[in-house]
Amino acid sequence: MKPVVAIIGRPNVGKSTLFNRLTRTRDALVENFPGVTRDRIYGDAVWNDTAFSLVDTGGFGGREDALFPQVGRQIRDALEGADAVVLLLDGKSGLSPFDDEITALVRGIEKPVLHVVNKIDGPDQEGILADFFRLGVDRLFPLSAEHGYGIHDFVDALTAGLAGLCPAARDAAESMETRIAVVGRPNVGKSSLINRILQQERVVVSELPGTTRDAVDTLYRRGQRAYRLVDTAGIRRKKSVHRKLEKFSIIKALKSLDRCDVALIVIDAGDGLTDQDVTIAGYAHERGCGCIVLVNKWDLVEKNHGMAGRFQEQIRTTAKFLHFAPILQVSALTGLRVRKIFTVVDRVYAQYCTRVSTGEINRIMEEAVRRHDPPLHKGRRLKFYYTTQVSIRPPTFVSFVNYPPAVHFSYHRFLTNQIRKAAALEAVPVRLLFRRRSGRQPS
Length: 443
Ligand code: GDP
Known about the structure:
Helix content is about 35%, strand content about 20%. The protein has 17 helices and 16 strands. It is globular and about 75 Å long. The structure holds guanosine-5'-diphosphate.
């Protein structure tokens, strides 16, 4: 179990920005989906060789607390459960009366507490800290969760405080659960499949509350590996009565997808690939999940030769964006290839967590550019100076170029595919982002 760090603070001090910065970059994309509440409050972070979990406890004080008295309670629970606490203050709005209250809440607790003053973008703004020392704390960490100023010093101190509690990053990564979402239209066989998976081997199964209030996950262990089937306990238990009533809920699917590493996209072999299947697959793709397409009820069509090929073809042409996703024909009814699913999940997850060294990624990019010159843009030659991997899950790279808008869609795709091939990332989404840089040297 990794140490847990709770982030607490008033609403709008920047808790979720800090949370996102320390956990995953893909959260940023979530905001592009209007109407979807971002309620991810639990995530994993790795800093140097230290792995820990982060909990964003929601707001405390002010309007939010009045509306949701349980939020205060949530913070107290988090304080009890956490191994360290990060108390976030707002350097832009200055000291607030609530800050005394919240500081009092953590005073005297016997675990590391770091007081952070957020929204400080540089040393010239650090003067504001003087005010915050009035809270009677020994040390303050000025930082900008949004722009990154001060982050290094802060996380170094945080992880130093966790020393001894943290397993080394590699061990933690290996023992980490693979989070799996099972998504698909009603009646494609999701619950049959999940039950079959869990019955098939002698596995240890338990239920755990998910991060959202109504989600209950199924935890499943197989040898040394742990899998968390996200928000599936309900699906597993569903009765036939509910089956008739079940409507496809996109929000529910999105919530599961938002919390998973690998999405099992279940389709019904009898129906073929429907528009709704493609929509669901699209959401999984947009969220940057590793994807595996399971064509279920294969017992109904398996005697028909050539069918597997036709299905693959249909999926590849209709959902082009999923060209990297492995496709498996399975049957929850007979158990056909159900065991195989986890072999594929393990492969996809390993790729999903891959780190490519900076030397290696730059060699790959140079080779790609040598093989296929970037097109001229308004008479100017596009230059790729330097590329580096900024995150895993999914593997995300940033490349510094002289003029990002000049990277044509097709050239972007070419480069992504070259990385995919050369770095053995063929079964997962790969993100390649461009940033402007006028000089030659990386900073
Ligand atoms: P869910 O709504 O996606 O969870 O689907 P269910 O698991 O409830 O399955 C819907 C129906 O399809 C049920 O009548 C299942 O018995 C049936 N079913 C599920 N998997 C298979 C399969 O592999 N083969 C066949 N022939 N029927 C299946």
